[in-house]
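TASK: fixed-backbone design
INPUT:
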């Protein structure tokens, strides 16, 4: 009896490990588990069963304990069993993240997005410094929110923190978008958390801020606005019809091959891959720069396609020569005539008798360059608060490149932003401790050529110097957990669109969260 029980237990463990191996594979690849028809007569019974069939065909040991050789009530392929296995994988991954955080201070990144079933999903990402001094951003979880008011979002965060035994008092940073329910000064999520923890510094995503500043300047400056308007016209002419896209790619490849043959370009692995015209978007980071960069790289091919359009349809738009005249270096490199900067330019849209007489230099330098610079500075001042600006000004003085830009007063000022972490006595001890630290790192070759705050924190841990300079190390970790972008949250939403696709738009919220935790944090999941 005992021997039979042991044999059954061994068979069960063999079967469980086989199903779990297939589950791990599907989770890490972001693939679906179930099929539309999982009956024996179906040609496609779903990824899990088909993968198990593939496994069985290659492993005799697995074949002996699964499917027809196992009891019908112990197949381990039911949806409820799949749910339990996936949940166990997600729970184990999340526990590994919580253990990695330990008692470290952290910042929180939160954002919302709609999934394919039109549900509002809120994502939470934590940023912290681990025990080795390395900065980490980990996906904590996703939750469906039926009400997007600030109090509802705060309740979701409290519930998730309570589940994972995290404390709001450990927060030292928070980052959201500019929606009023998130970053509102009085009733936003930011305000609710600051009331509970006044040291959770709010920092809006710098990439968003800079993008909005550039878009605003481009809209207010006439010539910059004209530039992107003309680019948009070219995109529509060249990049919309399939026939013209094919002609553009053919011409671009021919230009690359010609330059390679005459030695103007040198080949290499991964270079000169297929490129397409990128459209600028007001909310897409760096999209305007990407548009101009692709336009410059594909300029000759674009000209070829436009000339074909001119011959066929006479659709070439006015203003093309004006665009080229604004890009002096671009024109010189392509042997395009550049206007004399001392010549008088007539401002368009005004009668010649009353138009202001200005030179090309005045037009380009004053009306375009200076106006754009002043507008950008004004936008940056309006969008970045004084506290955020001062905080990152202090961080900019932290040790990098052998302390070339170091300012001790700014360093001490940074510590004053965290009265919970540095009391009056520690602030007095910080100055002499940092003097000793500064002397060490300028003499020790191990600290030479470190180009980031995170690298210095890691080196302190590696050399065990963090024990001798605890206050300095604490300040470095506090500076490291402050984020400047919310790219980790955006990547979670990209993963959400892969997991919850149009074909899987009926996924439950718990099922989605468990799949996402493993898929996003697959590096940790592989170690568990």
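OUTPUT:
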């Amino acid at each position: 009896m005992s021997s039979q029980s042991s044999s059954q237990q061994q068979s069960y463990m063999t079967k469980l490990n086989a199903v779990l191996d297939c589950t791990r594979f599907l989770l890490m690849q972001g693939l679906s588990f179930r099929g539309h028809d999982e009956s024996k007569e179906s040609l496609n019974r779903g990824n899990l069963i088909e993968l198990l069939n593939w496994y069985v065909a290659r492993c005799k040991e697995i074949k002996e304990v699964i499917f027809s050789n196992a009891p019908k009530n112990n197949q381990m392929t039911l949806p409820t069993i799949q749910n339990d296995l996936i949940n166990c994988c997600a729970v184990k991954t999340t526990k590994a993240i919580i253990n990695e955080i330990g008692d470290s201070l952290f910042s929180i990144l939160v954002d919302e997005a709609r999934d394919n079933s039109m549900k509002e999903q809120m994502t939470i990402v934590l940023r912290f410094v681990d025990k080795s001094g390395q900065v980490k951003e980990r996906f904590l979880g996703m939750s469906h929110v039926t009400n997007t008011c600030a109090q509802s979002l705060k309740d979701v965060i409290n519930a998730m923190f309570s589940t994972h035994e995290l404390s709001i008092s450990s927060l030292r940073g928070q980052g959201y978008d500019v929606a009023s329910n998130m970053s509102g000064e009085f009733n936003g999520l930011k305000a609710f958390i600051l009331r509970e923890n006044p040291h959770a510094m709010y920092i809006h995503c710098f990439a968003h801020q800079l993008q909005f500043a550039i878009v605003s300047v481009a809209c207010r400056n006439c010539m910059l606005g004209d530039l992107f308007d003309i680019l948009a016209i070219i995109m529509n002419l060249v990049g919309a019809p399939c026939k013209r896209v094919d002609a553009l790619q053919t011409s671009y490849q021919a230009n690359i091959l010609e330059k390679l043959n005459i030695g103007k370009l040198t080949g290499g692995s991964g270079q000169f891959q297929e490129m397409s015209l990128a459209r600028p978007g007001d909310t897409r980071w760096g999209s305007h720069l990407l548009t101009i960069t692709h336009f410059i790289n594909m300029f000759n091919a674009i000209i070829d396609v436009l000339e074909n359009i001119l011959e066929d349809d006479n659709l070439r738009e006015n203003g093309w020569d004006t665009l080229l005249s604004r890009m002096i270096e671009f024109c010189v490199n392509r042997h395009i005539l550049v206007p004399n900067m001392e010549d008088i330019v007539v401002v368009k849209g005004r009668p010649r008798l009353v138009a202001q007489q200005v030179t090309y230099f005045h037009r380009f330098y004053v009306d375009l360059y200076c106006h754009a610079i002043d507008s950008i500075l004004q936008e940056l001042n309006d969008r970045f608060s004084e506290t955020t600006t001062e905080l990152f000004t202090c961080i900019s003085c932290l040790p990098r490149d052998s302390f070339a830009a170091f300012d001790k007063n700014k360093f001490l000022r940074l510590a004053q932003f965290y009265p919970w972490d540095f009391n009056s006595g520690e602030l007095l001890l910080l100055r002499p401790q940092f003097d000793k630290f500064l002397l060490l790192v300028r003499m020790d070759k191990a600290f030479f050529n470190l180009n980031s705050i995170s690298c210095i924190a890691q080196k302190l841990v590696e050399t065990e110097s963090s024990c001798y300079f605890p206050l300095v190390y604490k300040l470095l970790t506090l500076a490291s957990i402050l984020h400047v972008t919310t790219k980790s949250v955006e990547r979670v939403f990209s993963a959400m669109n892969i997991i919850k696709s149009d074909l899987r738009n009926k996924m439950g919220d718990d099922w989605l969260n468990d799949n996402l935790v493993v898929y996003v944090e697959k590096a940790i999941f592989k170690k568990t």
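COMMENT: The two ends are 35 Å apart (CA to CA).
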